[in-house]
Amino acid sequence: MNDGASELSAPEVKGYMTREVATVSPDDTVREAVDRILDNNHNGFPVTDGRTVVGFVSARDLLSADEDAPLFTVMSDDIIVAHPEMDVNDAARVILRSGIQKLPVVDDAGNLVGIISNTDVIRSQIERATPEKVGKLMHTLEEIHGVATSEERREVRLDDLIPTQARVYADELEGRRYELERGLAEPLVVIDNPSASGEIEDDGTLVLADGHHRVMAAHRLGIKEMDAYVIAIADHVELGMEKTARKEGLQSITDIEVVDYARHPLVETTKRFQDE
Fold first, then answer.
1. 168 and 262: one domain?
2. Which of 2, 4, 8, 154 could form a disulfide with 131 if both were Cys (CB 3.0 to 4.6 A apart)?
3. Which residues form a coiled coil (predicted)?
């Protein structure tokens, strides 16, 4: 097996951080910072002098401070920062162990380029198309069908995809929309199954194995192409998921039903436990 998935780089902070960062100046007053927190629902800001991070001020720092005091007198100047190329899992460990909620992200020159929060870290762990997931699927295809596989990262046209999931949930689409609008969405996982005829002009089938909610959120946003891990099969095989797609009448992503009248089963289960 050509396990290209094992060569994929680990997810980095730059893939999940927010690039548009609200900041305050060291000379701003406590009252000005409080007003911004109330207006924007923030719980704190990096304090910057130009583009350089010189501190961080949280809502807690402002609670007992005089409203006319400049922020440089109340801010924390012993701050922890992340680098854009830092492994997002390492950033998660820092956030967890330090008890902070946000890490300013600075480049090699010390300039602020983003911020990553505990929410961003959690999002990075949910339904992530990890190299391990891709590698496991490649191994499964080889074991079941006795074919060679390879993997590559490329853009795929959404109109070319054959879905293998008949429905998605509207409430989960909101989360995927958030990710897409901020450039946080993980790549799709697609299987490139060559044509059974073997004719060169027949491009075969692109089967969507993972990422149906991401695809439908992208479709609603008018996005035409998405980044994907594409698992190429050397010879045509009859995939079980393709049989299921045909049985469900799934020929394109427009055949996927968006369920507006029910929440995701995991959400329902969680709510039921809370009610009990």
1. yes
2. 8
3. none
List b or e across 16-45, with b for residues whose CB sees 16 or more CB atoms inside 10 angstroms. Answer: bbbeebebbbbebbbebbeeebeeeeeebb
What tens digit of pLDDT does each residue of 208-249 get?
998 999 999 999 999 999 999 999 999 999 888 888 889 889
We report the CATH number of the domain holding residue 74 as 3.10.580.10
What letter does residue 98 receive in the DSSP assignment? H
Q: Which helix (H) or strand (E) holds 141?
A: helix 131-145
What is the residue range of 38's domain? 13-124
Instruction: Tell me how far apart the alpha carbons of residues 217 and 260 are, in angstroms, rounded to a whole number.
Output: 14
| Alpha carbons 131 and 140: distance in angstroms, whole number | 14
Is residue 73, in this structure, part of any structural domain at all? yes
Q: pLDDT digit string (tens) for 144-198?
A: 999 999 999 999 999 999 999 998 888 778 778 888 887 777 889 999 999 876 5
